[in-house]
């Protein structure tokens, strides 16, 4: 089993790489080769099978052709620029998030014309395909009315994935990831960054700013669950999907207050005191347009699983990033 | 007021051209120039204002730039290849229905970078963006799960239209047309052709084949209503659309039995006897995947209007195509 990860140098890509190496197999078949591709050359990792690393800009014509020439059995397509950057740079967002994906899909289709080949392709979409007005809990058949270019690009890629799969060019599964918390590493500029920051920073003894009210509700899962979704999507029997190949992943609908209560249970009052309230109207307005809760009925019935309490999310962070102990605890 | 129609040589394009010339105005402003573009050069039409005709293939780079260089105030984008052709020729469908539209949208955006310009753009989408399983009556916020490449291409263009409008590159309105009956002219190869054929042919004394059962239900409007939708979409106050710029048009949900009853009321038993039942399993299966009924609540509340009985649809055909009388009547 040969696996290709595109966007392998990113947060989810690195965790997926680790998980695949640890498992050594996918869907019961031993992994024999792993190709890690990203515009920023991914780090070469030690593994009991062949790992190769490719630096490639998916938005450049020809790049995808090179990646698919070795005909991997499973392709994880995670490469994207984030919402904020796609909003700030219209052309770059469409070039990478839409055209990059289409170039990949076309490269697979053309490779399949040479000799039959139908790899499983797992694509990471986002709940940003939904935009207000929205019901309190969003059903699986809710229309996509994105309010960002990033969300538009993800929604278009979902449509392409479904059509290419229907045509038999590849065997696609699109998964709409919740907002992933706690995102490890340095704070980034994403408007959603504070959801992770108010857990990550205080647990490291560092102050974190909370720009929204405590009753703000959003939809979360841990990086660990995200990796679980990707692997389950790669192993899934596609017949069960019928014609609907894009799925809202399960997640946890929680408020900031619930986040902070979980933080206190793990870190105590001293840690929670490091969260400084500094309401920011701009961020507040952006966040007010985001989805708060989903039914995710189809994904649950297909066996996808996420955290069911914020304690689980904080615990996953402490176990996976902090060696299992709270530095300040 | 300068108006550009792309796809002007098509069935809807020709009827829209006639209607605009007859009205002489749009949204209360006198029409001063009309540009008719199509890959098949549209016929030059006499009008009390300047009419120009352009033969241009929208899917070729540069073609859209020429069309937008004169900065029309309103652009009707009707150019497309139909469902059957887009399904038979994957690359052609994407080249015309998706890339052609994107080249047009990009040409408008770039023209607006030279000097501010924000034309109203009316795009004809289709109920083919919806695919089974579907509820009996489809609400306005139903997810798009097209089961054809044509429907996929239309759904993608809707998403692009919304994002380009949100960005202020143009002022777009996307309208999902019902199946248009009675389509004038020779029978075409569309799987939906019989819905028009069983009215049009018998009224001309010619036999027509009915490949599906009498209880098959579908969603219709007349060519006259389609032109009405286009003009209303061009005149609409966009503020009322808020962020949802793509609308399911109103229509008539009717069965074949209701169609035939209306035909009999206008043409008598002799005319209805020209409908020959010849069940076709392939067509039956295709049609079974089509939507049957919509709420179209938003479009109705925005003032769009369609026929409310099949008699109205047959009457529109007799008035607009047969000079007001039934040849065999
Ligand atoms: N993290 C989240 O909360 C979240 C939520 C929903 C969806 N997603 C999606 O999941 C995927 C992975 O997310 P992440 O958090 O790991 O993002 P990330 O930004 O950490 O990783 C994305 C990777 O894609 C790479 N990339 C960007 N442009 C590229 C190009 N032109 N060619 C090749 N590689 C390119 C980047 O270098 C980066 O390593 C993305 O598609 C993202 O849109 C993430
Ligand atoms: N007729 C219907 O029932 C129906 C239903 C839903 C949506 N629509 C949509 O409404 C629009 C008009 O429909 P119609 O029935 O008049 O279709 P039509 O086929 O009669 O007209 C389409 C026109 O587009 C032109 N065209 C095709 N490729 C082109 C290209 N590359 N460059 C320039 N022009 C090109 C064709 O020459 C044709 O004149 C289409 O976009 C169609 O998809 C129609």
Automatic annotation (TrEMBL), chains A, B:
<dbReference type="GO" id="GO:0016491">
    <property type="term" value="F:oxidoreductase activity"/>
</dbReference>
<keyword id="KW-0521">NADP</keyword>
<protein>
    <submittedName>
        <fullName>SDR family oxidoreductase</fullName>
    </submittedName>
</protein>
<feature type="domain" description="NAD-dependent epimerase/dehydratase">
    <location>
        <begin position="3"/>
        <end position="206"/>
    </location>
</feature>
<keyword id="KW-0119">Carbohydrate metabolism</keyword>
<dbReference type="InterPro" id="IPR036291">
    <property type="entry name" value="NAD(P)-bd_dom_sf"/>
</dbReference>
<dbReference type="Pfam" id="PF01370">
    <property type="entry name" value="Epimerase"/>
</dbReference>
<dbReference type="InterPro" id="IPR001509">
    <property type="entry name" value="Epimerase_deHydtase"/>
</dbReference>
<dbReference type="InterPro" id="IPR050005">
    <property type="entry name" value="DenD"/>
</dbReference>
């Amino acid at each position: 089993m040969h696996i290709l990860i595109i966007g392998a140098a990113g947060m989810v890509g690195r965790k997926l790489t680790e998980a695949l190496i640890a498992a050594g197999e996918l869907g019961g078949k031993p992994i024999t080769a792993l190709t890690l591709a990203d515009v920023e050359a991914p780090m070469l990792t030690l593994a009991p099978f062949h790992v190769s690393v490719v630096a490639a800009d998916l938005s450049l014509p020809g790049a995808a052709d090179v990646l698919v020439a070795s005909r991997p059995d499973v392709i994880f397509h995670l490469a994207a620029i984030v919402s904020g950057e796609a909003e700030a740079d219209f052309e770059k967002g469409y070039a990478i998030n839409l055209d990059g994906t289409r170039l990949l899909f076309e490269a697979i289709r053309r490779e399949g014309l040479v000799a039959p080949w139908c790899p499983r392709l797992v694509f990471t979409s986002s709940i940003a395909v939904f935009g207000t007005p929205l019901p309190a809990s969003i059903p699986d058949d809710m229309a996509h009315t994105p309010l960002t270019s990033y969300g538009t690009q993800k929604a278009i890629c979902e449509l392409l994935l479904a059509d290419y799969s229907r045509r038999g060019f590849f065997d696609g599964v699109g998964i709409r990831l919740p907002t992933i918390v706690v995102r490890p590493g340095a704070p980034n500029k994403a408007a959603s960054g504070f959801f992770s920051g108010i857990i990550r920073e205080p647990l490291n003894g560092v102050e974190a700013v909370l720009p929204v009210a405590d009753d703000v509700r959003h939809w979360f899962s841990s990086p660990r669950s995200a990796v679980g979704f990707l692997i389950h999507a790669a192993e899934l029997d596609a017949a069960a999907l019928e014609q609907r190949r894009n799925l809202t992943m399960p997640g946890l609908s929680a408020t900031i207050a619930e986040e902070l209560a979980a933080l206190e249970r793990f870190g105590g009052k001293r840690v929670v005191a490091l969260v400084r309230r500094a309401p920011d109207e701009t961020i507040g307005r952006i966040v007010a347009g985001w989805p708060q809760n989903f039914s995710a009925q189809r994904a649950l019935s297909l066996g996808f699983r996420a955290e069911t309490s914020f304690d689980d999310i904080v615990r996953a962070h402490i176990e996976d990033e902090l060696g299992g102990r709270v530095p300040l605890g």
